[in-house]
Design brief:
Number of domains: 4
Number of strands: 0
CATH class of the largest domain: Mainly Alpha
CATH superfamily of the largest domain: Tetratricopeptide repeat domain
Order of helices and strands: HHHHHHHHHHHHHHHHHHH
Radius of gyration: 27 Å
Oligomer: single chain
Helix content: over 70%
Shape: elongated
Mean pLDDT: 90
Amino acid sequence: MRTLLPVALFLSFQAFGQTTPATPPLQAATPTAQLAQAEDAMKHGRNQDAVPILEALSQSTPLPKGVFHDLGLAYYRTGKLAEAQKAFSRAVQNDPSDEESVQMMGLTLFRMGQPANAIPYLEKVRQWTPNSEADANYVLGLCYMNSQRYDDARRAFAAQYGVAPDSGAAYLLTGNMLINANLPELAAAQAQKALVATPNLPMAHFLLGEVALFKSDIDGATKEFEAERALNPGYAPVYDRLGDTYAHVGKYQEAQEALMKAISLDTSRTGPFILMGKVLLRRNDPQSALLYLRHAEKMDPGNFITHTLIGQALRASGQEAEAKQEFDTAAKIHAAGELKLQPSP
C-alpha cells in the first residue's frame, strides 16, 4: 500500500515551465526501467519530462503496474486536471485498493469545481484511514459545504481540529468556515448553535457581531461585541470593532476608550490607529489624530485611506499645502489600486 502524500502539497501545485535539464531520450529499455526513469524525473521535479514517458507506457501491453497512478500525478502537478482525472480513473479501475489514486481523484475533482463528485472518493479514503491527515478532512469539509451538507461539513472540520463533532467548538469552526465562504447567515446560525452547546464559548459572540456589522446592524453588532468583551477581555480586535460601532452612533468618547485598549493590547495592526485618527478628527482634535495616523502611515505607506485622513487633519490644522500633497498621494495610490483590478486586455 502506498503512503498517502500530503493533500496541501498537491493542492499547491500549479503548472509552470521547467528549467531543469531535460531527461535524455528513451533508449531501448524495458517498461520497468522506463517507469523507473519517469519516477526519478518526477522525484526531482521534472514532471513535464515524465509525461511523454508515462503516456507511451500507458499504451503498452502488458501495462506496467502503477503507470496510470504516476501519469495522474504528473498531469496533476503540471496543472492538466482533466487529463489527471482520466488517469486516476484508470488507476482506480485497475487497482481499487490504490488509496493514493482514490484520494487524488477526489482532490482533482474538487479542483475542477466538482465537489459533489469528489465526496465519495474522499469519504472512501477516510473510511480506510479514520485518522487521516487534517487537510484531507478540510477538503472533504469544503466539499460538503459546497454541496450544502453542513452537518457533514461540521463533522469533517471537527475531525480536522480534533474536537467533538457536537461540541460548541465544532459549530464555531463551521461558522468561521462559512463566513470565509461569504455565507454570513449560515455562519450566524452555526455561532448561535455553538452558544447553545457552550454558553460561554469565546469568539462565538464575536462572529455574530461580525455578521451583524456586515448587515449594517450597528446595535446588534455592539451588543455581540460587548458580550464577547465580557468573555474574552484580552482579545484586541473586539475593542477596535467596538470603537467602530460606537463611532457609528456618535459615541466618540466610548470609541476612543475602546480603541486605546485595542492599541494597548496589540500595536501590530494599522486598523485601530486609523480608526483612532478618524474618531479624533470627529472630536475636532486634528493634532492628536495626526499622531496616530502618522504611525499608521509608517506601518503601511500604501494605504490611501490613511493619506486621505492625514490630509483632512492637516487641512483642519491650517496646513493647506501639506494637505494637498496628502490628497494627491491618496489619489495616486487609489488609482494604482484600481488599475491593478482591471482585467488584462
